[in-house]
Write a structure and sequence with these properties.
The chain is mainly alpha-helical. 77% of the residues lie in helices and 0% in strands. It is built from two helices and no strands. Helix 1 packs antiparallel against helix 2. It is rod-shaped.
Amino acid sequence: MFKHRLRMIGYVATRAFIALVVAVVVASVLALLSAEAVVAWYMQQYGIAQRADLANDIGFGMLGLFVQSAVALFSFVAALVVGWRVFGKEAVKFER
């Protein structure tokens, strides 16, 4: 009984670790892509020619903060749920 519980704890820990790694990687990639999309949109919308001109633009900073926060939060949670479901009992071997 005790060995079974230890194996089950190991299985859940492995599954949680894999799901967390997947979630962090996916959230990081999507945050980077959304940041580039926001920069490109903002520069095109307001006719800014160089990225250096964005350095003192507080409105752009606030827009970036809100977009990045929302994308990072939603993509992390979604990737965590998907990662947990994908790496189920079939992916991480667990024998009784």
